[in-house]
Write a structure and sequence with these properties.
The chain is mainly alpha-helical. It has helices at 4-13, 24-28, 37-76.
């Protein structure tokens, strides 16, 4: 939506003289290019892997905290 092509189509589709309006009918006629289904699937798979990696990284501080507690208990025994 930030591409110059989209903005150009939006400007072409607006109506009005003082205040320009983009009515739904005109907006719905603007073509938005999308990647092919194979490319979309690759992007989705990449994002899912990234999400899994982030979840693992979020668990690390908790794991380290548990290790610290175990070590402290061993020292105090």
């Amino acid at each position: 939506m930030h591409s110059k092509y989209f903005n150009k189509d939006v400007i072409k589709s607006t109506e009005g003289s003082v205040r320009e309006y983009l009515f739904y009918e005109n907006f719905s006629n603007i073509k938005i290019p999308l990647p092919c289904p194979d490319e979309q699937e690759k992007i989705a798979n990449f994002l899912l892997k990234l999400e899994d990696k982030l979840k693992l990284e979020e668990q690390k501080p908790g794991d380290f905290q548990q290790q610290k507690q175990w070590f402290m208990q061993q020292i105090l025994i």
